[in-house]
Amino acid sequence: MNKAIRFEQPGGPEVLRLIDVELDAPGTGQVRLRHTAIGINFIDTYQRSGLYPLPLPSGLGQEAAGVVEAIGAGVTHLSIGDRVAYAGGPPGAYCQARVIDAAHLVKLPDDISDEVAACVMLQGMTVEYLIRRVFAVEAGQTVLWHAAAGGVGQIAVQWLTSLGVHVIGTVGSAQKAELVRALGCRHVINYREEDVAQRVRALTDGAGVPVVFDSVGKDTFEASLDCLARRGMMVSFGNASGPVPPFSPLLLSQKGSLFLTRPRLGDYTANRAELETSANALFERILSGAVKVAPSKRYALADAAEAHRDLESRQTNGSLIMLP
What we know:
- It comes from Paludibacterium purpuratum.
- This is NADPH2:quinone reductase.
- GO terms for molecular function: mRNA 3'-UTR AU-rich region binding; NADPH binding; quinone reductase (NADPH) activity.
- Residues 11-322 form the Enoyl reductase (ER) domain.
- By secondary structure, this protein is α/β, with parallel strands linked by helices.
- The chain has two domains: 2-121 and 275-323, Alpha-Beta Complex (Quinone Oxidoreductase, Chain A, domain 1), CATH 3.90.180; 139-262, NAD(P)-binding Rossmann-like Domain (Rossmann fold, 3-Layer(aba) Sandwich).
- The chain has helices spanning 42-49, 114-134, 151-162, 174-183, 196-203, 221-226, 250-254, 272-288, 304-312; strands at residues 2-6, 17-21, 30-40, 63-71, 83-87, 97-101, 106-107, 142-145, 166-171, 187-190, 209-214, 228-236, 259-261, 295-300, 319-323.
- The strands form three sheets. Strands 3, 4, 5, 6, 7, 14 and 15 form a seven-stranded mixed β-sheet that branches. A six-stranded parallel β-sheet has the order 10-9-8-11-12-13, sandwiched between helices. The chain has a two-stranded antiparallel sheet with strand order 1-2.
- 44% of the residues are buried.
- The mean pLDDT is 95.
């Protein structure tokens, strides 16, 4: 019997349950995928808590790697036995196996392991679209990246540094500061000890940065706006501290005719060509050695609630995965 995590009502990690589920045969355009490694991401906690509501009862999880076990009619780009990975589609990655639309899957290069794929697809393609398509960062520019020691942040620091971009990263401890410095972060700000906006202004001779990438949300939003240069762009792509409260658009003009965007990965991988372009750009960075990724901690599928507690504590570094 296939094991899977399900929840019937929004709430804390305790609502997650490990249950037995039966799998149907794959239908047209689908495959049955046996998972080998499963990614754990902040969006999973948003969906579990009800911040991003799901129809209930529901599965959980956006990202995994595995092996194709069966193929439905009309699937031509995959074969049984292919190693594949995905990020996106209907939640439900927290399981041993699932039936999934083949359109979500990309083949893995031989030199990228299942564990690396499971902890890099969603976070890595997030970095790709943020720095190449939301705001096309150029060599020599200085950018601010919040939560630089997190899974997305570590990938971003490495990728941006490899492009000749100067990264100012925020972290919450001296240990995390050393970690991101080792990855190439030009300047590190401990937000528990320093005023982020004041330090950014000092580091940029008062000019501010052209772009802020902010996955923290409520706690950092206004300070992020104060870090921006005139006509700078605020990229708000997460809510780790909670959603940003409502505000008047007039605030953006008062702080320098700023731009604000709230993007999501699904709108930047909306078709097969975009998905493959994003994934291939990520794979190239990994295979070149510019971006090095490995899970910082592994959990059993039955320990999904523990994984969520660790993630929400903001004490973790890097990427977390489950092994089914």
